[in-house]
Amino acid sequence: MRSFEELGLPKCALDAVSRLGYETPTPVQQMSIPLALEGKDVIAAASTGTGKTAAFLLPTLGKMPKRAKGRTAPRTLVVTPTRELAEQIAYNSSRIARSCGLYSTVVYGGKPYSPQIRELRRGTDILIATPGRLNDLIERGVADLSEVEVLVLDEADRMLDMGFLPAVKSIVSHVPEKRQTLLFSATIDESIQKNLSDLLTDPEIVQIAQKGETAKIVDQSILPVSNSQKAELLKCLLDEKGHDKVIIFARTRHRAEDLAKELKRAGFKAVCIHSDKTQGQRKRALQSFRSGEAGVIVATDVLARGIDIPEVDYVVNYDLPDMAEDYIHRIGRTGRAGNAGFAVSFVAQKQLDRLQAIEALIGRSLPVMRIDSFDVDLSQLDKPSRREKAKEREGMSKKSAKSAARAKRYRSKKKQEKREYDYTGYGDLRKGAKKSKDVRPEDKASTPDRKGGRPKRTGKPKQQHQKQHRKGGSDNRPGRSQRKKR
């Protein structure tokens, strides 16, 4: 295996390697760093936890010459999809930049604009940003990308999944055409090639992970269980397998929040992270988990990609993900950097289609885990019979028919109400005109005509309505002329 010295890194980058505690380069670093040092565009695909961040930071910052202090525009731009990833890249970038005498700045949403604007105006060499906040700063005239020499698109597949393609293309339009572009992704699929390949010039392909490949060191298994028994099974699993460093993935924000509360009530030190949390809350939850203060973190897929949490014992898929590809990113949170780990997925009968999609993606069947303190329900792995499916469809049909009938009755009622209030005009009604259906044929001549104008009034004179200010009523009050005579 080659060493970092053999990859051709400058001395300042090698000093950063020692500071970061890296010993030998990972496969993606071995293949990407020499290409990046040569100034070539690179598309690199590798599984999570393989050192992709250092693969683009070490060569980029290592070869960047120092500049005089002052208000300088960034020369390297790293665009990444989430705030957590931006913070993580910024942490590693600051340590490498310090060794090379450079400055690093990070900007992302969920934080006030003023401190980030001040940082940019002071000048920086490398800028790490999320797409939304960077576009905002560009529109404000604060972020100057005219001197960018290296553009890094990190977790490119995730950015496409999150709908950031227009934002990314808007950012690229402000970057010089003559530049080096490095694209890093968990997978290289058709979407990447279709939407982002035109941003690179004759790129070199570094393919470490094929689609569907998972960390080989991660032992994967399933636990069949009904939805109503999942919480009880999870407590038994944590008691039996340990709860010092466990990530639990839930499908929705509310489910994650409720599960974390239930685990706390059961005596487990659990924290929760999802997209509804503020940036400060998410940061404190991650820090609490990293430091060991909390042994369990319950998360949605916001934590599934790119977040480097070392020495995670195992991952629990409390709910199977909607997309089979997300399963790979979830279990990649354990078994990182050569450490052992395992992943277990809870499977209910209604989720068998998702399980089949996952097994098709990874190319093998997942075995059932043995657990002593809980009797797993193997019947959950049996497909529903045709009779059960027919009953379910019949139930859905009846429910749909009831909903349609209820909606029809509501529309009929509203239509009837509209007919009842079919008066000749709002202004006419205010003036005391009768509804059109209540007007007798002989009175039609005195009814206002909306099209031909209002005819001369032939009915009774307009009644005078006066407020009764004193006892006796308005009829007892003298008129204006009588008051003057008095």
Question: Could you give the topology of this structure?
Answer:
Blueprint: H1 11-20, H2 27-37, E1 42-45, H3 52-62, E2 76-79, H4 83-100, E3 104-107, H5 113-122, E4 126-129, H6 131-139, E5 150-153, H7 156-161, H8 165-172, E6 180-185, H9 190-195, E7 204-207, E8 218-224, H10 230-241, E9 246-249, H11 253-265, E10 270-273, H12 279-291, E11 296-299, E12 314-317, H13 324-331, E13 341-347, H14 352-362, H15 386-420, H16 426-430, H17 480-485
Parallel strand pairs: 1-6, 1-7, 2-4, 2-5, 3-4, 5-6, 8-13, 9-11, 9-12, 10-11, 12-13
Keywords for this structure?
single chain; 486 residues; alpha/beta; 13 strands
Rounded radius of gyration (Å): 34 Å
Total beta strands:
13
Please trace the helix and strand order, writing H or E for each element. HHEHEHEHEHEHHEHEEHEHEHEEHEHHHH
Largest sheet: 7 strands, parallel
Number of helices: 17
Give the rounded overall mean pLDDT.
80
Q: What is the share of helical residues?
A: 25-40%
Strand content: 5-15%
Look at the helices and sheets and give the structural class.
alpha/beta
